[in-house]
Amino acid sequence: MKRNEIASKQSKERVIYMDLSQLYPVKFIKNFGAFKTGDETYVSLPIAMKWTKMGVVENSAEVMASAKTSGCEDLMKKDKKVD
After folding, report:
1. Considering just the CA atoms, what is the radius of gyration of the chain in Å?
2. Which long-range contacts (CB under 8 A, 24 or more apart) does 23-27 make?
3. Is the pLDDT assigned to residue 75 strictly greater than 90?
4. Alpha-carbon distance 36 to 6, whole Å?
5. Which of 9, 73, 78, 82 could be cross-linked to 67 through a Cys-Cys bond (beta carbons 3.0 to 4.6 Å apart)?
6. Contact 65/76 with Cβ under 8 angstroms?
7. Least confident residue range of 23-27, 45-49, 73-77
8. Alpha carbon 45 to chain centroid distance?
């Protein structure tokens, strides 16, 4: 497959635009790596969405609003296998 064929295929897929320099406050509800329950930190939107989906941090309104504006709020649904 040639590169231009791959690029044209990818251009037809859904594209998500988000500002990666924007930081969002998250509060941990479970121990995760070096973070303990109750710790707070600032992370970018993709990390906040990933940790929210994993059930490690609280789902904040600010993160959810940014996910909706960038068109990726469906990626924030929790996995069924998460404890």
Report:
1. 16
2. 24/48, 24/60, 24/62, 24/63, 24/66, 25/60, 25/62, 26/51, 26/52, 26/57, 26/58, 26/60, 26/63, 27/57, 27/58, 27/60
3. no
4. 43
5. 73
6. no
7. 73-77
8. 5
Q: In 3D, which of 68, 64, 56 has the Cα closest to residue 27?
A: 56
Measuring CA to CA, which residue among 72, 58, 61 is closest to residue 20?
72
pLDDT tens for 1-22 read 455 665 565 556 666 777 788 9
Q: By the 8 A CB rule, do 80 and 55 touch?
A: no
Q: What pLDDT digit, counting tens, does each position of 31-65 carry?
A: 998 999 999 999 999 999 899 888 899 988 898 88
Q: Which H or E run contains 66? A: helix 61-70
